[in-house]
Amino acid sequence: MEKTQSCATGAHILPRIEYVSEGETLYDFCLWEYKPLSPCRNKFSAATLLFNSFEATDADKRLYDLVRLIREGIGPSRTVWGTKLLGTDIKWEFYFYDYARKARARSATRVLELIRPLINCNIGVNEALEYFMFSLDIDHDLVTDSRGLNEVHLYVGNPGSTVSSGICYSLTGSGTRLENFYFFFDAR
Predict the structure, then answer these.
(1) pLDDT digits over 109-144, tens only?
(2) How far apart are CA 7 and CA 10, in angstroms?
(3) What does pTM read for this prediction?
(4) What is the DSSP secondary structure assignment for residue 127, as one 8-state letter?
(5) N or C of the chain: less Cβ packing under 10 Å?
(6) How many of the other CB atoms lie within 10 Å of CB of 126?
């Protein structure tokens, strides 16, 4: 169970702060379970850093609603995210892993339906493909309805690789194109 609070300092409201619960299952950047090196009691969750990035960039408050919709639909701690600075633009990339491939519980189609109240997307994803991950680029224009979601990044396995890896494809309204190859190395 996540504990959440907001802190007020003078007239400034700091973002939501969440703490890791004792005994909570922790996941790394590949959504693989890991054991913490020290006790987690009273430590901030990764979501706190995400929320602080929203505040630091004066992001639209609907980003919090987006996170809420995703959490309600697929559960807390089931999304990996990154913050990207592209020129002067800030974007957040949300990654959704499900290693069950065709029997996945967190499909791109399902997540796109979950976020539809905030974000319009007309890209159809072929759920017969054995992808293990997909990602969405989220920015100000998207959550303020200045534009719809125009791209989904789909990651499929890389047969024959001796290292955990994937091949990323960009799905847009005009088609599919190869984006890049990813390799996931074990830090140990």
Answers:
(1) 999 999 999 999 989 999 999 899 999 999 989 999
(2) 10
(3) 0.85
(4) T
(5) C
(6) 11
